[in-house]
Amino acid sequence: MSRTLLQKVWDAHGVRTLSTGQTQLFIGLHLVHEVTSPQAFAMLRDRGWQVQFPERTFATVDHIIPTLDQARPFADTLAEEMMSALERNAKEFGVPLWDLSSPRQGIVHVIGPELGLTQPGLTIACGDSHTSTHGAFGAVAFGIGTSQVRDVLASQCLAIDRLKVRRIDVSGSLTRGVYAKDVILEIIRRLGVKGGVGFAYEYGGAVLDGMTMDERMTVCNMSIEGGARVGYVNPDQTTFDYLEGRPFAPAGETFGRAKTWWASMASDADAEYDDRVEIDGAALAPVVTWGTNPGQSVQVDERIPAPGDVETNDRPAVTEALEFMGFEGGAPIAGTKIDVAFIGSCTNSRLTDLREAAQVVAAQRISPHVTGLVVPGSKAVAAAAEQEGLDEVFRSAGFEWRGAGCSMCLAMNPDKLEGRQVCASSSNRNFKGRQGSPTGRTLLMSPAMVAAAALAGEVADVRELAPAGSVGVG
Amino acid sequence: MATGGQRISRVAGAPLPMRGNDIDTDRIIPARFLRSIRFEGLEAHVFEDDRKALAEAGTPHPFDQPQYQGAAILLANANFGCGSSREHAPQALQRWGIQACVAESFSEIFLGNSTALGLPCATATPEAIAQLLHAAETEPATAMTLDLEALTVRAGDCVVEVATAPAVREALLSGTWDATGLLLDEFDDVRAVAARLPYVTGF
Ligand code: SF4
User: What pLDDT shows up at residue A197?
Assistant: First the structure.
C-alpha cells in the first residue's frame, strides 16, 4: 500500500489508540524555550513526574532576550525571571540548555535544523506554532500549548488526531526577485488563513525541488498562517547534503544507513492525497500584505482591495483591516511609506535570507526616515554572516546589526514598534499589536523586499530596484 | 495512574458575544503578558489592547459591557483563536470566567489547548451562531446551556445543534482531558515504540 510521508511517520510513531479515539504519538525531538515551558515544568514538579527522555529534549532562549544589551541580569525583571526559571528547570530535569553564553543559542526553529537535530522521518514538538518549520526536512512537526509541553516532557508523547494531507505542487521556476516567502504568502492568499485547518500541507513540485533547505524552511514555517498545523517537504539529496557533518546528525557509516531510512520515509510516488492544489511558479510575483492577517495580501504591482472587490462575507474583515491600517481601498501598495524595516524571525533570518537582502542593499543607504534592524536567527548565522562581511554591508547602509533572537517579530523583548509606525517585516504575522504597539502596522514581505523598502523609504518592487542578475531566484 | 480531571457534560451560564472572524491569540492575550512564569493574573489582561482601543472610541468591548460580566459561554464566528500556540489565550479566558466556547470554527491549536484545560469548544453552523449571537445581544440575561451529550446549545426556547471532534467530546465526557495520565498509562508500549525507531537505536 502506498503511503504519504505523514502516514509513514504516523505508523512508525503511533503507540496506541487512546480511549478518546486520538493517537498516542511518540515524539522524537522536543524543543523547549523560555515562554511556554515554565508552567509545564512547574506542573511536572507538582505531580512528581520526571522528564522521561531528557536526551530527546533540548532548550534554548529566544523570545524574551534583548538583542542589544544582553548582560545579566536583564534590565526587564520579568524577562530575567523567565530566563532564570528556564536555567533552573533545565538543570533540575537534566535538559541541555543553550543560553546566551553558548555559541549554539538562537531562535528555536533556526537552531534545531542548524545543529542537525531536525531530521527526516521524526516527530517533533515545540511549544510554538512555527514548529511547522522543521517539516522542511520531511519531519512531522507540531506546535503545541503548555499543557502539551507538559505531556511531552512527562511521557514523550502527544495525544493527537490524525491529519489529512493536501499536496501543493508549485510547478515551473520562479522569476527574478521572487522568493520562497512569496510562494508561501501566495499559497495563504489563495487558500486562506483557515484553508489548512485539519490538513498537513505537503509541498512539492519543481520549485520546491529546486529550493535550498533555508528556502524550504521559509515555506514550511508559515504553514500555520494558512491554518495547517503541519507542513512538510519530502526529504531528498538537498536534505541529506544539508545534514551531513552537522553536530547532531549521524556520522560516518551511520550516515549512509540513516540516509536509506530517511529516503524510505518520503511519500510514495502513487500516494493518495485528500486534496491537491497546483500553482504555477513562473506566474508568481513579490507579495506584500496590506491587512491584519497573513492572507490579506496583494502582489507588489497590484492595488489594495476595496470592500466592494471581495465577497460579501469578507467585507467586514476588509473594512476593519483597512480602517486599522489607515489604507485606502483601491490604492496601489507600492509607494506605501514605511518607518521601520525588520529583517529577522524564524521565517527569514537564516544566512541565505541575509545574503539576499544584502545583495539588494549593496553599497547603498537606507532612507533617512527609516529605522532598519537586521537580527540573525542564531549565533551561528551571525558568525557566518560576519565572516562574509554581511554585517558591514548592513551597517554601512544604515541598518543596526543585532544579537540573535526573535526581536521585533513579537512584543516580548525591548524591540517594538512605536505608535502608528509602519514596518516592512520579513516575519510571519501582521496581527494587530503583534510587533509591540497596539496601533503599529506590519507589512509582511520577503527579506529582499524589506531591503528594497528600506532603501526607497516606501514599499518598492525589488525587481525594479536591483540590477538584473544581482537578485537571486527563489 | 489517575487521569485527573472532572467529567464535563454540560456548561450553563450567561453568553458573551465576540463577533468577527479570525480573532487571533495576540488579540486575546497580547504577548507582553506572556512575560511571566505563571498563568495566574492573565484574566486581567484578556483582550486588553482591543478593549482599550474600543473604550477610547466610545464603544465598549463585550468584555467591558456590564451585561456580559459574569458570562460563561463565549460565542464567536470563524477561526477563533488562530495564530500562536500560546495556551495563555484559553487560560486567560477561563480564568476570566469563560467555561465554554461556541463558534463557527476554531484554530486547531487553540482547540487542543482549550480541551487540555477542560474548556469545551463546540462548533455550529454560521446560521446557528448568528441566532445565538442575536439572542446574546438582545437577551443577555438569558442563560445558555451547552449540552455535550445531546450536542446542543439551548438559549431560552431556541435549541441549536453543535458539533465537537469525537475525541474532544469523549475526553470531556470521560474526564480524561488532562492527557498526561492517559499517556503514562502503558509506558512499556512507549518504550517499545522508541526501541523500534532507527534514529533512537542509532540506525
Ligand atoms: S521569530 Fe517570531 S514566530 Fe519565530 S519563534 Fe520567535 S516569536 Fe515565534
Answer: 94
Q: Considering only CB atoms, which chain B residues are within 8 Å of A24?
A: 182-183, 190
B108 chain-A contacts, CB cut-off 8 A: 197-198, 227, 229
CATH assignment, A164-236+259-283: 3.40.1060.10
Tell me the CATH architecture of domain A5-160. Answer: 2-Layer Sandwich (3.30)
For an interface test with B, give the residue of A10, A19, A20 to mutate (most B CBs within 10 A).
A20
A65 has pLDDT over 80:
yes
In chain A, what are the domain boundaries?
A: 5-160, 164-236+259-283, 287-464
DSSP B36: S
Q: Is the pLDDT of residue B188 over 50?
A: yes
Where does A252-334 have alpha helices with state H? 253-264, 315-325
**pLDDT value of residue A1:** 83
Q: Which of A233, A238, A237, A291 is nearest to A260 (CA)?
A: A237
Helix (H), strand (E) at residue B74: strand B73-76
- CA separation, residue B12 to residues B18, B105, B116, B120, B142 (Å): 18, 20, 20, 12, 10
What mean pLDDT do residues A454-464 have? 97
Topology match between the domains A5-160 and A287-464: yes
- End-to-end alpha-carbon separation of chain B, Å? 33
Higher pLDDT, A69 or A188: A188
* Concatenated DSSP letters of A317-356: HHHHHHHHHTPPTTSBSTT-B-SEEEE-TTTS-SHHHHHH
User: A457: phi > 0 → left, psi -120 to 50 → alpha, else beta; which?
Assistant: left
Instruction: Please say whether the structural domain B10-201 has been given the CATH code 3.20.19.10.
Output: yes
DSSP of B87-104: THHHHHHHHHT--EEEES
Ordered by start, the domain boundaries in chain B are: 10-201
pLDDT surpasses 60 at A470? no
- Residue A201 dihedral angles phi and psi, to the nearest 5°: -95, 125
- Average pLDDT across chain A, whole number: 96
Neighbours of A326 (CB within 10 A): 10
Q: Within the 37-56 window of chain B, which residues sit less than 8 Å (CB to CB) from chain A?
A: 37-39, 49-50, 52-53
| Interval A305-330: pLDDT, tens | 999 999 998 899 999 999 999 999 99
Q: pLDDT by residue (tens digit) across A247-256?
A: 999 999 999 9
Q: Rounded to an integer, what distance in angstroms lies between the CA atom of residue B8 and that of residue B170? A: 10
Exposed / middle / buried, residue A50 (Cβ in 10 Å: 0-12, 13-18, 19+): exposed
Phi, psi for A448 (deg, rounded to 5): -65, -40
What amino acid is encoded at A202 in this protein? E
CA atoms within 13 A on the CB side of A246: 19
CATH class of A287-464: alpha beta
Q: What is the band of A79 on the pLDDT scale with cuts at 50, 70, 90?
A: very high
Q: How far apart are the first and last CA of chain A?
A: 35
Q: What is the pLDDT of residues B137-180, one digit of tens each?
A: 999 999 999 999 999 999 999 999 999 999 999 999 999 999 89
Give the ipTM of the model, two decimals please: 0.92
Which of 437-466 (A) contact B at CB < 8 A?
A: 438-439
